[in-house]
Amino acid sequence: MSRIFSYDDTIAAIATPLGPGGIGIVRVSGPSATQIYHRIFRQAHPTRRVTSHRLTYGWVFDPSTGKDVDEAMAVLMKSPASYTREDVLEIQCHSSPALLHKVLEVCLANGARLAEPGEFTRRAFLNGRIDLSQAEAVLEITTARAELAGRLALGHLKGFFSREVEGLRRQLLDVLASVEVAIDYPEEDMEILGEARLIEVLESCIRPRILNLIKAYGRGKVAREGIEVLIVGRPNVGKSSLLNAMACEDKAIVTPVPGTTRDLIEAEIDMEGLAVRLVDTAGIRTDPDPVERLGIKKIEERLHGAAVVLWVMDISTPVDAEDLSVGKALSPLQEEKVLIVFNKADLIDQNPEAVAQERMKTIREGLNRIKRYSYLCLSAKKGLSLDRLSQAIRQGVMSDHSEVELEIAPNLRQKRALDEALRSIDRACNALDQGLSPDLISIDLKDAILALEGVTGEDVTEEVLDRIFSNFCLGK
Amino acid sequence: MSVFPKEYGVIVVGAGHAGCEAALASARLGIETLLLTINLDCIAAMSCNPAIGGLAKGHLVKEIDALGGEMARNIDATGIQFRKLNTSKGPAVRATRAQADRLLYRLRMKKVIEGQKHLDIHQAMADKILVKGDIVKGIRTNTGEEIHSTCVVITTGTFLRGLIHIGLKHFPAGRMGDPPSNRLSKSIAALGFEMGRLKTGTTPRLHRNSIDFSRLEVQEGDTPPTPFSFRTTAISLPQRPCFITYTNDETHRIIDQALGRSPLFTGKIKGTGARYCPSIEDKVYRFPDRPRHQIFLEPEGLDTAEIYPNGIATSLPLDVQIAMVRSIKGLENAQILRPGYAIEYDFSDPTQLNPSLETRLVHGLFFAGQINGTSGYEEAAAQGLMAGINAARYCLDQAPLVLDRSQAYIGVLIDDLVTKGTREPYRMFTSRAEYRLLLREDNADVRLTPIGRDIGLIDNEAWDIFKTRRRRLEEALGLLKGIKIAPSASINEWLASVGSSPIPQTTTLFSLLKRPEIKIKTVEGRFEEVKRFPPEVLDQLEIETKYSGYIERQELEVKKFKKWEAMLLPEDLDYRLIPGLSNEIVEKLSRQRPVSLGQASRISGITPAAITAIRIYLKKTMG
User: Fold this and answer.
1) Average pLDDT across chain B, whole number
2) Is there a contact between B173 and B192 (Cβ–Cβ < 8 Å)?
3) Average pLDDT of span A415-438
4) CB burial readout B330-343, b (16+ within 10 A) else e
5) Which residue in A107, A208, B81, B245 could disulfide with A12, CB within 3.0 to 4.6 Å?
6) What is the secondary structure of A391-449 as a DSSP string?
7) Between B85, B90, B613, which is nearest A440 by CB?
8) Residues B505, B483: Cα–Cα separation, whole Å
9) What's the confidence (pLDDT) of residue A265?
10) How far apart are CA B105 and CA B242, in angstroms?
């Protein structure tokens, strides 16, 4: 049973990402928004009348204690000219998580309840301000980490994806219609598609197009969610300086915040439009102490989730046992995922490429296994060849992507519906192969059409709606 | 003005296929019923083709029978050719079709009606529906008599302001030879009903002796003929063949040159015809590349020379009809006994009805058949039966009987009409039923006879027949599940001989039958004990076994569907109070007043977001 939201209450949430920053916003929507404004906001000029859509300067205070919480700007947007079409109050305060939570608490204590995930957008949708596809696009644009993702969402807003699906749906409707007409007009003297032709249309016209959309999902996912690049290697090969260098090189540090464990350092960067989360790991050693062993376990857990693993080595020193133990830890991974980075190329006098080849030989012998890892040489410290690294990473994850395909890439919900459509089509082909009767074939064809209708939101059930809306981040 | 001496529970206006079922159902439920007709000699007249059943229509006839209606037994008693259609296209879409002896068909129905207890017949034209406030009180006839009743069922067919066209000539008529009903149409419109205009047509009738059958393809019926009714044991009338011929280039040229004299193409006809039942001029015009169109020559009866050339309905002038017919192989000397014609008539937008077929404007007033925009005898009879049942239940102060889309084609038909309305004459198709695999001809009795019994339309005799059939089905199923088959050289050899793979371990005959290549007929050959069950029982068993996977999937769908049907909308719901509904949606819902969220979701233009908004509102206000 899906959750039912009621309309007559007022919801509140922190609308901006939590973290140190300049401004944080608490948003309130619903019939009590105006009342809450008057209860918790003290205007700097008490006599001035509140005007809709105009910022007012003053202080948020807690009426139960009478104490000020924060200095803030507040704006009331009267229904229906607001995001949700309800009365909306936005309070812009200082963006400390503790402070924002306090402001939110004051709102909750004075007539609001905490919003469910996506509830603001859900209300906007239910109040007819936006339609479903726009709602989904809002989700994607607000969570778009980088340009590629934004472009993809924009492609959806423009309807490239919907048009492709609609085309498929029509084609399937044609097939179904020809099956149905043969059923309902058995006596009619007319040409209808034979079974062989039906299978041909399904398998060579419709199936590949759906498959193509499904395949685009993988690339779309990369564009939407970005990728994780894990930096591993023994201690002191320059992993941290590589992270810093990449972050600087790409000039778009998002949030270099300490990782969740003391062993991992993370930074988000925008690599020519691709959102990349760099994760710097603690060095892996042959003889770890118990604490380090925990750290290694953490790394192993991350290995599989990462799109690319940069195995960093110091080109100025020979490959040693510790390097090889790193290699062993990487051995379960697909070789395309691993990229060997010979760092500190500025420290050697010889041609780095020649040295690298020599080192690679040692690695292959030392690992006892034939893995064809790619490699490149650079210097994190001097910033040499960093652009080649970016290139290699992008190529690795987006090897065959083109923008046209990206614009039709489905999201996860859409991909599931396409999977379902594909399964139905396969069932129909199977049934045709087995010589089953048209009344049964039509059931599978109808299922496929219904699945496609779910993709474009023409026949969305509430379950799907719920799933879509719970994907929204709180407050948007 | 005088008042008729007797007061009725139900008055049925019109004695066509809808009216007969309505009157019989109401009377059989014990309600004093009056059947009014313009012409007593035309009870249950087949104004168009002399056939009952066909795809989806055969399903309707079996459902009418399973609920206790008359149509199936009437055709069984008067049919002169019976065929099972689509035998190779799957269990869900097999359908029965029969040619009727047109005269015998209406005579038998008249006899049944004359002999029915609680049912009076009276020849008169209804001019006005009597209403007090918003409650129906009876009708007034063209001779000025008032007849009072609790309910009125209107089944006027093509008679409301009927206008016949032949060429550019037209004249008022309800059907060729009978007067139209003009004042009644005005009376209905005056009550506030939104009316529209539709068109249908029929073919010229030919003299048998003027046709050269020797050069034509013969189409015999099935032997033995399979009846419609679960209660019929055998078909008694002698059986007759049909013949098949085709139009040709010359026919098409004649038609093409005469389009300037066609009431359809010159705009004389304003009503909308059905796309799926076009006139021959329409077919030739719309599909210029088709080299020929098929024509079935159907006998109209055992003792008449009239032949019905199915496939050349036309409203072209008589001289063109003659030339066109005579250009066709076998018909070179054909003599036209009656011309083909088109007829325009009024209908009332069926979205003004509740699913019980009672109008929302006037309590106790029911509409059934062509007045609701349908076409076809079977569609009419199905609605007539339901309107008759519900008018009787209205008199008895019982809740209406409403079948849903998962229970019967009748449910699909009525739901489509009252929910979506129609712009062209509505015909039933199997593809309109989303749970087609569950709504088969063979299980119509399993689906509906218990309901018919509950409401009181199934008598003891019919109920016993049903129970016997059901018991046999259970026995046969028990038998199949009980026959254990161990793997042996002999059994695997037999399996190989019928194109199937060997069995690795002991199994039952039931699981073996699930294999697509193992047919019940194949099994009968080896397992003698199966033979003691009648073929129709075995057929049904085979369907239920072999397609169990698909059937289960549809049953799952039905569960979801029922959930939405069960979310009822209050009758006095004020849609204007629901936040988030557009004006257009509010207007639509307020006008149509769907009974459930499920029905609301099927109204065109009602978005999923609107459905969600209504649901949220209901949760909030009703807890």
Assistant:
1) 93
2) no
3) 88
4) bbeebbbbebbbbb
5) A107
6) HHHHHHHHTT--HHHHHT---HHHHHHHHHHHHHHHHHHHHHHTT--HHHHHHHHHHHH
7) B90
8) 14
9) 73
10) 18
Distance from CA of A335 to the nearest CA of B (A): 44
Chain B CB contacts of A423 below 8 Å: none
Burial letters B34-60, b for 16+ CB under 10 A, else e: bbbbbeeebbbbbbbbbbbbbbbbbbb
For A186, name the nearest residue in chain B, comparing CA atoms only.
B86
For residue A415, give both structure tokens.
């991909």
CA distance A299 to A302: 5
Whole-complex ipTM: 0.77
pLDDT recorded at residue A237: 86
**pTM summary value:** 0.76
Counting every residue written for chain A, the total comes to 476
Q: In this predicted structure, what is the pLDDT of residue B396?
A: 97
Q: Chain B neighbours among A 68-127 (CB < 8 Å)?
A: 125-127
Distance CA A9, CA A113 (A): 8
Q: Does A294 touch chain B (CB under 8 A)?
A: no
State the pLDDT at residue B574.
93
Closest-CA residue of A relative to B92 is A439
Chain B residue numbers with beta carbons less than 8 Å from the beta carbon of A457 are 608
CB A356 within 8 A of CB A299: no
Distances (CA, A) of A375 to A306, A341, A445: 18, 6, 49
Q: Which two tokens stand for residue A439?
A: 């009344």
Name the minimum distance, in Å, from the CA of A53 to any CA of chain B. Answer: 22
Instruction: With residue A188 as reference, give the H or E element that holds it.
Output: none
| DSSP string of B485-539, one letter each residue | E---HHHHHHHHHTT-PPPSS-EEHHHHHTSTT--HHHHHHH-GGGGGS-HHHHH
Residues from chain A that touch B92, judged by Cβ atoms under 8 A, are 439-440
Helix ranges restricted to H, A9-159: 33-40, 97-109, 119-126, 132-143, 147-158
Token couple for A16:
């901006």
Q: What is the spatial distance between Cα A57 and Cα A72, in angstroms, rounded to a whole number?
A: 6
Q: Look up residue B223 and give its two tokens.
A: 């032997």
Cβ of B516 within 8 Å of Cβ of A131? The answer is: no
Report in angstroms the alpha-carbon separations of A326 from A331, B9, B562.
9, 93, 60
- Are the C-beta atoms of residues B607 and B588 closer than 8 Å to each other? no
Lookup: tokens for A352: 């780095």
